[in-house]
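We emphasize that the prediction below concerns an isolated chain of 243 residues; any contacts that depend on oligomerization or on bound cofactors are therefore not represented. The input was used exactly as deposited, without trimming of termini.
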Amino acid sequence: MDKKLQKAIDTIVDYGIKNSRMVNHFIDEAKIAWKDSDGLQDLMVKQIVEILSLLSLQGDTNNTIGYKVKQLTNAINFGVISPLKFTDNEWNKIDNNEYQNKRKSSVFKKEDLIYDVDAYSKHEIGIYEINTKKYTKKDGGCWQGYGLYLINDNFNIKYVRIAKIINKENFRGNNKIYIPSICLYNSIDKNDYICYVSLEKFITNKWKKDYEFLNHTNRCNKEELNVVEQNKNQIYQILKNYE
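Result of the prediction step, given as a token string:
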């Protein structure tokens, strides 16, 4: 970093440490939480102190700092502030019939279909081994891409993949859903993954105001669909009791 710039940052940090309760509160908490931390964590603490010290110069109240934190979080996540307009000048052409939104990079248009690849993620809550009928709870993180089999209360199954945007009047793309899902395996020992399964009841009404899933059941892997069909009762009961 440029020496003059670093000197300016150091001056701001000195001010924050001398004058800001917020800065000193974070420093005290960091010492308790990460007293035996490694170099990377020390660097993160140093940089957060720099950011907080700069904020402390601006004399915020509780109301204004909350507003800034909200907008900063949105900016860091490349969020939009006002709704997308879906006008021609908002799109970049990436293929013959496909376009990507300039303001929200997860939003695409193909002919008359506008969809969001970041509308949902599968939250893996456990593993079900179909050979042994054994279920193991596991927080396997969140996964995007591929598809998801949904079972409804009538034990009907549909395969979904694309989340179509239906709210074109007030869409900001900030209504992502994390769907509790079970990962199906033939054999866990062999890492023989099959697919993800969840329940329709986990798709919230709030999410449905912005999106609808396209039904791709007629285009799914038929072997996968058969596996889900054969094990849907057990999977439904497991997911039904998830909280």
